[in-house]
Amino acid sequence: MSKFTHIDDKGNAVMVDVSEKQATTRTSQAEGFVYMNDETLAMVMAGSHKKGDVLAVARIAGIQAAKKTSDLIPLCHPLMLSSVKVEFDAQPDQGRIKVLSMCKLTGQTGVEMEALTAVSVACLTVYDMCKAVDKMMRIDGVRVLSKSGGKSGDWQVE
């Protein structure tokens, strides 16, 4: 069984030393969902919300959040991301917007936390912009879909 990498032999929290790791191209994708009523979803998709283009604001918020992940998660390394993408897929038949993120860099550590942070903050931004018209929204299903690069290799959800 693997051990936690952020805990030393004495049980202390530590930042993982990546100085000896090889720099490789690393990517990660994550997803999350914002569930809302039909009227709210239609408003978001039509761009008729009073606050403006909900998805444009959420996209920028997700990108900014990925860049600030190490400020939010105490033991994450500050990373020089080469690409961050945040996309949306309206799924009216399921009453939701699917949020997808992809983060990429060439470096010594992975970008799963950055992809998760991008999705989470994009979902939170959709919620924040729409909460006045839909109090019953919920955020669900935030998870890593895939990662590539590094010593542990590639992985993806089946």
From TrEMBL:
<dbReference type="InterPro" id="IPR047594">
    <property type="entry name" value="MoaC_bact/euk"/>
</dbReference>
<protein>
    <recommendedName>
        <fullName>Cyclic pyranopterin monophosphate synthase</fullName>
        <ecNumber>4.6.1.17</ecNumber>
    </recommendedName>
</protein>
<dbReference type="Pfam" id="PF01967">
    <property type="entry name" value="MoaC"/>
</dbReference>
<keyword id="KW-0456">Lyase</keyword>
<keyword id="KW-0501">Molybdenum cofactor biosynthesis</keyword>
<dbReference type="InterPro" id="IPR036522">
    <property type="entry name" value="MoaC_sf"/>
</dbReference>
<dbReference type="GO" id="GO:0061799">
    <property type="term" value="F:cyclic pyranopterin monophosphate synthase activity"/>
</dbReference>
<comment type="similarity">
    <text>Belongs to the MoaC family.</text>
</comment>
<feature type="domain" description="Molybdopterin cofactor biosynthesis C (MoaC)">
    <location>
        <begin position="15"/>
        <end position="150"/>
    </location>
</feature>
<feature type="binding site">
    <location>
        <begin position="113"/>
        <end position="114"/>
    </location>
    <ligand>
        <name>substrate</name>
    </ligand>
</feature>
<comment type="pathway">
    <text>Cofactor biosynthesis; molybdopterin biosynthesis.</text>
</comment>
<feature type="binding site">
    <location>
        <begin position="75"/>
        <end position="77"/>
    </location>
    <ligand>
        <name>substrate</name>
    </ligand>
</feature>
<comment type="subunit">
    <text>Homohexamer; trimer of dimers.</text>
</comment>
<feature type="active site">
    <location>
        <position position="128"/>
    </location>
</feature>
<dbReference type="InterPro" id="IPR050105">
    <property type="entry name" value="MoCo_biosynth_MoaA/MoaC"/>
</dbReference>
<dbReference type="InterPro" id="IPR002820">
    <property type="entry name" value="Mopterin_CF_biosynth-C_dom"/>
</dbReference>
<dbReference type="InterPro" id="IPR023045">
    <property type="entry name" value="MoaC"/>
</dbReference>
<comment type="function">
    <text>Catalyzes the conversion of (8S)-3',8-cyclo-7,8-dihydroguanosine 5'-triphosphate to cyclic pyranopterin monophosphate (cPMP).</text>
</comment>
